[in-house]
Amino acid sequence: MARPREFNEKVAMDRALQVFWDRGYEATSLCDLTGAMEISKSSFYDTFSSKHDLFLACLDLYSDTQRKWVLSVLEGERPARESIASVFEFVIDTVIEDGDLRGCFLGNCAVEVGQHDPAVAKRVTAGLEYFTGAFERTLKRGVKDGQFTAIEDIRSVATFLVSSLNGLRITAMASPDRKKLEGVAKIMMSNIH
Hints:
- With 193 residues, the protein is mainly α.
- It has a domain at 59-190: Tetracycline Repressor, domain 2 (Orthogonal Bundle), CATH 1.10.357.
- It is 75% helix and 0% strand.
């Protein structure tokens, strides 16, 4: 008979996600993970099998969290333009008010691991595609409501917004200056007519 787990798996995974996000995949050791998760090595291997499997589970956890957030922001009751602008405002506030200079976990994973790890690349692509789809639906809503009148290729504009959002997060990592970041966001929004 298997022994019951003596730790909360969701809490442990969230702690592991924070470690991977802070340090990156390669620089994170098993000791870093088990220490942050407050579990033994045997519990780690019994539950998560390997560092790589845990990393993939953390990518899934991050993506699920971001999907819920995107739904609440972009697909709420506010006008489309305001909804899109609020995504950029949130990122800026997270950097300036919370001091979170880690960037987007998906973007970080794409740069560090995605080029040589197909399982990571697949998850990153799916996460970015979800964001693109959410922006696309919001843009279509804005066109339908008459807020946007000059958009010819909604898909490309949605992709532009995702790329711009990731670029904003990278800029914020290097230079967390509210005025500069708000200026960048304003230019991004001015490209949507």
